[in-house]
Amino acid sequence: MKIFENFSPNFTKKTRTKEKIKFVIIHYTGMQSEIESVQRLKDPKFKVSCHYLINRNGAVTRLVKDTNISWHAGKSKWKKFNNLNYNSIGIELVNKGHQYGYESFRAKQINSLILLCKILKKKYGIKKENFLGHSDVAPLRKKDPGEKFPWKKLNFHNVGKWYKKERNLAKMSKEEMEIKFFKNLHKLGFRYFSLKKRNIKDKKVIISFQRHYLPKHVTGKLDRKTFEISHFLTK
User: Fold this and answer.
1) Cα–Cα dist 30/100, whole Å
2) Which pTM value belongs to this model?
3) 3-156: CATH class
């Protein structure tokens, strides 16, 4: 795979061992152009970067070496991990994002992403379920890569987690469904909510889950379909 190099100064200078790399976090750039995105990712003033950028035509550029800690995930949690920068590789896909006119991802772009993910998966022994979106690990702050991102297609290539639909579950009360749903999310790795009591911010966690697994039904409401998918994923 051909990878161009255009290094950013925005990374933690201390290197990490291969064993520390356990996740790949996928983002969109959320800016109006590729040029603007690269400028932002290289500007010391903004203190953001990523390891790889994939443009709309599928060209891959390395901005930070894998063994350095890139500043891409920010405040984030997944399972027992906090601040995912330390244990992840960040990949940015050029896309205007929700703020500037969210676009469908191009086939060339996704094909390059899948190939890159396969390489990283093999190189660092990354589990397939540890390929995540920025909104998965930071659901209260982030929307990317968003509901147009083809997680199901990635799963077909053994990258990322998806579900298999099974027989319908027994009926249960709304309260019981709610309790089980958040237990399922916690088991999957989602954080930023309490298992004991509900909070108004829980809606953003539900939206993040739906963007990933139910992209045509992003309502922020916990309904039967959303719950069932959480169940299928944890079986």
Assistant:
1) 7
2) 0.97
3) alpha beta
Of the residues 5, 19, 36, 92, only one is catalytic, namely 92
92 given a catalytic annotation:
yes
Write out the chain's pLDDT in tens, 235 residues.
999 999 999 999 899 999 999 999 999 999 999 999 999 999 999 999 999 999 999 999 999 999 999 999 999 999 999 999 999 999 999 999 999 999 999 999 999 999 999 999 999 999 999 999 999 999 999 999 999 999 999 999 999 999 998 877 888 999 999 999 999 999 999 999 999 999 999 999 999 999 999 999 999 999 999 999 999 999 8
Instruction: Describe the chain by its helix, strand, coil percentages, rounded to 5.
Output: 40, 15, 50
The closest of 121, 145, 169 to 54, measured between CA atoms, is 145
Task: Map out the domains of the chain as residue ranges.
Answer: 3-156, 174-234
List C-alpha distances in Å: 51 to 60, 98, 225.
10, 22, 36
